[in-house]
TrEMBL record:
Residues 1-180 form the Formyl transferase N-terminal domain. Belongs to the Fmt family. (6S)-5,6,7,8-tetrahydrofolate binds at residues 110-113. Keywords: Protein biosynthesis, Transferase. It comes from the Bacteria. The gene is fmt. One of its GO terms (molecular function) is methionyl-tRNA formyltransferase activity. Residues 204-303 form the Formyl transferase C-terminal domain. Its EC number is 2.1.2.9. InterPro entries: Fmt (IPR005794), Formyl_trans_C (IPR005793), Formyl_transf_N (IPR002376), Formyl_transf_N_sf (IPR036477), Formyl_transferase-like_C_sf (IPR011034), Met-tRNA-FMT_C (IPR044135), Met-tRNA-FMT_N (IPR041711). The keyword Transferase applies. This is Methionyl-tRNA formyltransferase.
Length: 314
């Protein structure tokens, strides 16, 4: 079968590799977002998918808008059986969706209709979910609204970070995607409409999401810290310094005679304990501006935190 593959970030790389390695699949073109300039030197950076596609000697196509007439003509000339989309980053028009014989197939990192949108993995952890997964679906003009083909459930471990869950979902989703294409061609793939009233949404996130609100519960803050590690990272402020928190746990310490954000313990035996609106949070890995990420023991060896001092609350 001939396919056009559309994807951009690291999440889409395992699926590209799995499709490339399957003898029944021919990747005619890889479509990814245009190169971007970033950093102080404004250096040009390729997407993760472009890097992998070039390493595999695949034909790479890029466009700011894949729905333009000239780009659609290029896709029509390929005559693909499928257009496969994994975290591509552009909405596809009705005309483009009609190009492939078997349709446009998407891999999405949630159990749809839960967490439609661009950040389902982050939201699953931030919301304290114990279960998430992948969904393959037939694409339509809506965002993640198409009919479901297959779903696979993935357990979320108690201390799992978004980075760890991201990698697990990407690897398992790649196998699901290959199975989906083969079963569609064989005529044995299901088609299940989504229950729209049950839909929830995971909108695009930015760096501000990582700001810790100490008026939340210890469990909610712990989930936030996991849910923004490695990006955008959780942070709080103390005496004008922004401190990043990379690892935490909910403490069994029950002293609640402090205002949220108060450092109630800061020593080698107890670690760093902070009062929240409900419960106490233990900070286990921290980072000061310009410094390295340090386990709490190493952090306390080099930095003194005064008990009863408070992290800022905005």
């Amino acid at each position: 079968m001939k396919i056009v593959y559309m994807g951009t970030p690291e999440f889409a790389v395992p699926s590209l590799e799995a499709l490339y390695n399957d003898e029944q699949i021919e990747i005619e073109a890889v479509v990814t977002q245009p190169d971007r300039k970033s950093g102080r030197g404004q250096q040009v950076h390729y997407s993760d998918v472009k890097k992998k596609a070039l390493a595999l000697n695949l034909n790479v196509m890029q466009s700011e808008n894949v729905n333009q007439d000239d780009f659609i003509k290029k896709l029509k000339d390929i005559e693909p059986d499928f257009i496969v989309v994994v975290a591509f980053g552009q909405k596809l028009s009705a005309e483009l969706l009609e190009i492939p014989e078997y349709g446009c197939i998407n891999l999405h990192a949630s159990l749809l209709p839960e967490y439609r949108g661009s950040s389902p993995i982050h939201r699953a952890i931030i919301d304290g979910k114990k279960l998430t997964g992948n969904t393959t679906m037939y694409m339509d003009e809506g965002w993640d609204e198409g009919d479901i083909i297959y779903q696979q459930q993935v357990q979320i471990k108690d201390n799992e970070t978004v980075g760890e869950l991201h990698d697990k979902l990407a690897e398992q989703g790649a196998d699901l995607l290959v199975k989906t294409l083969k079963d569609i061609v064989a005529g044995k793939a299901p088609r299940i409409p989504q229950n729209d009233p049950e839909a929830t949404f995971a909108y695009k996130i930015d760096k501000s999401l990582g700001r810790i609100n100490w008026k939340q519960s210890a469990e909610d803050i712990h989930n936030l810290i996991r849910g923004v590690n490695p990006w955008p990272g959780a942070y709080t402020e103390l005496n004008g310094d922004r401190i990043k928190i990379w690892k935490s746990s909910v403490s069994e310490h029950k002293d609640s005679n402090f205002m949220p954000g108060t450092i109630i313990r800061a020593n080698q035996s107890d670690g760093i304990l902070v009062q929240t609106a409900d419960g106490v949070l233990s900070l286990e890995k921290l980072q000061l501006p310009g410094g390295k990420r340090l386990d709490v023991d190493d952090f306390l060896n080099g930095h003194q935190l005064e008990e009863n001092n408070k992290f800022e609350i905005n």
